[in-house]
Amino acid sequence: MENKDRKWYQKKRYIVSLFAIVIIALVVISSTSAAPSQVETTTVVPVTTTVPETQDTVSNLQPTVQNTQDDNENNNLSNDNYYTNVDDNRVHDPAYSENGEAPDGATAECNDGTYSFSQHASGTCSHHGGVSSWL
After folding, report:
1. CA nearest 108: which of 90, 128, 89?
2. What is the pLDDT of residues 81-122, one digit of tens each?
3. Does 111 map to a domain?
4. I need a labelling partner for 27 at 20 to 30 A (CA). Which of 40, 49, 62, 122 fits?
């Protein structure tokens, strides 16, 4: 019965509610005051460069990859596609041999029957079922 004799600010339910309101108010005030008060400015300075003129024309430029029908017929391969490996070397894509023999330069035969020309063991025949045999 002593609870009835207490004043409102002495009761626990009012104290806890008042404490929560004060904490929320402090968080809101601190988050708004934490915003940057100064704005940094950046100055952009234009840089002018000159590019030397070259004598090259489209007719003088050599293609980087030459895929010809003659290469395909000489190698007896099913395709004449190339890729650039990690050493920046041009390497023939895996291909089927059209005459049934291992082509020149092949390093492995893949499980799907293609021949790989990979220069590293890592990743050889990875999209062709793995290595069947190393050549």
Report:
1. 128
2. 888 888 888 888 888 888 888 888 889 999 998 888 888 888
3. no
4. 40
Asked whether residue 18 is domain-assigned, the answer is yes
What are the angstrom distances between the C-alpha of 71 and each of 67, 93, 97, 125?
Answer: 7, 13, 13, 22
Task: Tell me the C-alpha distance between 21 and 101, whole Å.
Answer: 85
Residue ranges with strand state E in the chain: 82-84, 90-92, 108-110, 115-116, 131-134
Decide if 131 is inside a domain.
Answer: no
Structural domain that includes position 19: 2-33
Report if residue 41 sits inside a domain. no
Question: Is-contact 135 106, C-beta < 8 A?
Answer: yes
Contact 94/115 with Cβ under 8 angstroms?
Answer: yes
Cα distance between residue 82 and residue 109, in whole Å: 17
Give, rounded to a whole angstrom, the gap between the first and last alpha carbons of the chain.
98
